[in-house]
Design brief:
Blueprint lengths: L1 E2 L4 H12 L6 E3 L11 E3 L15 E4 L14 H10 L5 E5 L27 H15 L5 E7 L2 E3 L9 E3 L18 E3 H14 L5 E6 L11
Parallel strand pairs: 1-2, 1-4, 2-3, 4-5, 5-6, 6-10, 7-9
Antiparallel strand pairs: 8-10
Length: 223
């Protein structure tokens, strides 16, 4: 199941999954006339029930929300899905936010705190993602993985077919300016490949991980 099926990343994850031979159910909160797909159910994620999850082995939560009116879905929607999964083997993969990654070994500071990476206008969204991650970290009987794309997450970049996996730490540029960052880039295409690899091998239970592929090819470009 892919929640956020009509989003750019959701569509890509569905396409990769179908290409690999999986049966896929998409969930979208509204119909898009130019994107209608027979395997997509129009239903708000907050209205999903246990019956909707019958026969599902994995859920990719790729929902996107960027405004104060909608960003609560990153914790309220997440919490609702988790409430349906307690004691279930279903693997729940949440598309995470790099803002939640630790930037020191003591795990006392996160990337959200660096203003050149996440300025004031993004703080509410960062907080919503942090709250969602905290919900997952409190779950001991749900098979979850918080799959964090690294800081520069490029929707239009080409697939390289490769990616690397890191943990819950991020190494910002010494200057604290993302223009100087290293190993902080991945495309949607490479990320989607990583997500399917995780599902097929049931990797990283109850962990936050980061997927990255290399350096940003356009260092001053934000995605």
């Amino acid at each position: 199941m892919v929640i956020g099926a009509y989003g750019r990343l959701g569509r890509l994850v569905m396409r990769v999954a179908l290409k690999r031979g999986h049966q896929v159910i998409g969930i979208a909160h509204r119909q898009h006339a130019n994107l209608a797909r027979p395997q997509v159910i129009i239903k708000d994620m907050l209205d999903l029930t246990r019956a909707d999850l019958a026969g599902v082995d994995a859920i990719v939560d790729a929902v996107g929300a960027w405004t104060p009116a909608t960003e609560r879905v990153h914790y309220a929607g997440l919490a609702h899905i988790v409430s349906l999964l307690h004691g279930s083997p279903i693997h729940y993969l949440k598309v995470g936010a790099a803002s939640t990654l630790f930037i020191n070994h003591a795990h006392t500071h996160v990337l959200q705190e660096l203003p050149l990476y996440y300025p004031d206008y993004m703080q509410d969204l960062c907080a919503a993602h942090a709250e969602g991650l905290a919900v997952l970290q409190g779950c001991t009987d749900v098979n979850w993985t918080y799959v964090t794309p690294t800081y520069n997450f490029d929707p239009a970049g080409h697939s390289t077919g490769t990616y690397h996996v890191a943990g819950e730490e991020f190494h910002p540029a010494p200057s604290k300016n993302p223009d100087d960052g290293q190993q902080d880039y991945i495309t949607y295409a490479d990320y989607a490949k990583g997500v399917l690899d995780i599902i097929e091998n049931n990797l990283y239970p109850r962990q936050q991980i980061t997927l990255f592929s290399g350096n940003n090819p356009q260092p001053k470009q934000r995605y």
